[in-house]
Amino acid sequence: MSVPTQIADPVMARTAETPDKGQQVGFIALLIGTLGIAFAPIFAKLAVNLDHQAGASGDLILAPVAVAFWRMAIATPIFVLAMGREHRLQAAPRSSSFDWRLLFPGLFFALDLGFWHWSFEFTSVANSTLEVNFAVILVALVGWLWFKDRFNWRFPVGAGLALSGMILLVGFSFSGTSQTWIGDLMGLGCAFAYSGYQLTSKAMLQHHRVNVVMAFGTGVAAVFLLLGAMVSPGRLIPVTAYGWLCVIALALISQVLGQGLIAFGMRRLPVGLVSVVLVLQPVFAALLGWMILGQSLSVTQVCAGVLVVAGIYLARRGSIPAT
Fold first, then answer.
1. Helix, strand or coil, per DSSP, at residue 43
2. What is the pLDDT of residue 288?
3. Is 290's pLDDT higher than 90?
4. Residue 109: C-alpha distances to residues 192, 219, 292 (Å)
5. Phi and psi dihedrals of 58, rounded to 5?
């Protein structure tokens, strides 16, 4: 099977794109990528549960951090092969120096995923996915200050609506009982790491191609997650076919397709808009959790999801400065 030249960057002739065309393609890719990463908590939870249920009685569970490691480890060679083939086809000259800044996205992503996967053991899929997306506040602010992103009045209004829908969605599932608060705290802490991942990725995408940023980011994250998995309670390696199928699906759908397309969209869109659109992830995750895991989904949560979509629409309309 041949490796595609550009897994996350199918539009090679960027110079032939008009700004509007590039943003439209990037926005569509971002939506598809967001759906792809919405499967991440589903596959992660299934990997732990199915591997444990089908394994030998009394076995330790598959460590959630180990699931995150396999996601990165399986995806890394795909990005590396695509990066290498693209390099050969373009006959690009080898750089004499390594850009050490490429290490930062992977470091932040490892911190994000490590805590995020553990949060699934204490709180719901919708909660853990949702809380990470509080990163939108920090990312939009830093994008305005650092990347000089400029928007018209629709963007803050849309971002506010999306955040309101997000708060409404999670507000009815917060709980101070049992150990739920531990998972919720982990999810909120992940927002800071996820902000760092988005911002450093955007910075690197201004200097490197998508496959380069994804190959280094995914590989670095795999190294740190392996270290975390080795010191975490639970097994490092799945012992059943069910476990392996889940981590492979997680790598291909959520990392290669999902994060790859998000990086493709991020290269063409303001990072603040990207962060707002990613608020759709908990909406998708709540729907998938309801359909696949049987988790409850109330009328209020559905209305909150509609509010998020409306907010993203306004933010998208406001992402191009008024002339």
1. helix
2. 81
3. no
4. 10, 11, 26
5. 90, -5
Q: Indicate whether 8 belongs to any domain.
A: no
How far apart are alpha carbons 122 and 179 in whole angstroms? 6
| Distance separating alpha carbons of residues 217 and 310, to the nearest angstrom | 32
Length of the chain equals: 323
Report the number of distinct structural domains present in the chain: 1
Region of residue 296 (phi > 0: left; psi between -120 and 50: alpha; otherwise: beta): beta
Beta bridge partners of 235: 62
| Residue 307: C-alpha distances to residues 69, 188, 191, 265, 280 (Å) | 34, 21, 21, 23, 10
The CA distance from 55 to 5, in Å, is 39
In a domain, 5, yes or no: no
Note down the domain range covering 53.
19-89+100-317
Minimal CA–CA distance to 219: which of 42, 48, 84?
Answer: 84
- Looking at the predicted structure, is the pLDDT value of residue 1 above 80? no
Spell out a b/e string for 121-147, using b for 16 or more CB atoms within 10 Å of the CB, else e.
bbbbbbbbbbbbbbbbebbbebbbeeb
Asked whether residue 9 is domain-assigned, the answer is: no
Give me the pLDDT at residue 125, please: 62
Whether residue 3 contacts residue 81, with contact meaning beta carbons closer than 8 Å, is answered with yes
In three-state secondary structure terms, 62 is strand
